[in-house]
Fold:
Amino acid sequence: MVDAAKTGSKKGKTSGKKLKGPNKKESPKKPQSKGRKKRDDSALATNGSGLLSMDEAIAMLKTTRATFYRWLRSGKFQGHKAGRQWRFEKQEIERFLKGEAPRIELRGVDSLLENLRNKAKETNAPAAEGWASETPLDEAILLILQIGLAMRATDIDLAPQLVYEEKGGAEGVLRCRVDGVLHPVLDIDSSLLPSLMKRWKQFAHIPLESKAPLDGQMSFVLQGGERVDVRVCFVPTSLGVASTARLLRRRVPKMGLDLLDFDPSDMGRLKELISRPWGLIVVTGPTGCGKTTTIYSCLLHLASPHVKIMTIEDPIEMAFRWMQQTQLNEAEGITWTRTIQGFLRSAPNIIMVGELRNTETLQLCVQAGLTGHLVFTTLHAVDSPRAIKRMLDMGLPSFLIADSVKGILSQRLIRVLCPKCSQSCTPDPELYARAKKAAMEGGVRVENLPNDFRKPVGCKHCNQLGYSGQTAIAELLEITPELAEAVKRGATHEELRAVAVGQGMTTMAADGIRRAAMGITTLDEVFRVIAT
Structure:
């Protein structure tokens, strides 16, 4: 097609000005030069190729240039750059007018779909309902989500990765995080990634023109009616856009103290601690170690029509009966400190504060614990003794810690061996010696433990991973009079640990080694998580 803006004819002659952007006020229906005739859809010239210029496409859509730019950026239809000029397929514009999705033809997409279908079949991926795959990329995204669900993944990671020099450039890699560990699933042609990311952004309602890190969400329904929510984060990297999708199944999980699978001695002491009417109970550990699940289980154990429980959370992960739960919203004045102060005027029996983020919040929790309330909260710390050091570093006097804190529970999640395929084994002598030393320091003698060490193998039940599910290992530090005195005199965390072990505490490392000796997990997995 000959672009009228470049011809020298009187009918097509222009002023030579460049096309105006979306912020300029210009109607596409106005003639560009004096005496130019008004065009209609039947007069569009396509020189037999079916391609339209931008002006012709705008005229066909009967819209403004600003709206046209917005539709183009949001992916409502596709265009092609020919030098500095845009060209649009007439059929593409007609599909948009009919409300149909843009047609995307990509080399290699058929091969990608075949690989994803084979992987979905291999993992027995669940079927979905109500998902309209209007393009091949739609089906690819659905298959990726289904594979993640079949593998019990909490997160799906899709990103361009650098490859060896002999291969050159980068390739896309799809990985699933299962039981806290990323597992490669499939390599994807890097040329497909930009279009795949673009289509995924559209599903997640994210502006396509933005290059900043952005979050979005979407959902779909499995056969049987279960809805799955997907939170997607897109981050720009030097090789292209990387995405992380978190899968949130709307199942109501079974929750309760007896389902936490703590060691019986730790569980007995925890139940005794939370039965006290006042004081501060702190649960520590990194993100994703099950802190919130533990606190919810404690609150459910205590909840009743006769007990007033108030919580401030960010976010509220689950709603429960007999709990007044408040969502943090600093933009509307619902802050940690103001909300806790409001709680203290509301006569609660139990308060839960989602996280200790600053000194003021910590001081209010201590004040609440000392004035007759049972307070639950979380703190990021390596272990229980170091949690005391964290509170000291936040400016809390040692005597207040000793008087207000009743117990500190530190925990981690470790993978559980697949019961279908794990095999008995003799642990590596060097690793066994390391475990024996760590267990001894943590209050457990390996000689007194079962000798049922096992190793992972892999089968169809665990997707060849060798592990299936997670369990918690924990250490519960109870502030006894001896420990309170040690805190007041400024003992180091090593000294505090020694006193706590002498008072009956079992360290997380010793708890993990005990579970490895029982055939629940492996020594390698324990040391991967504890790193001691």
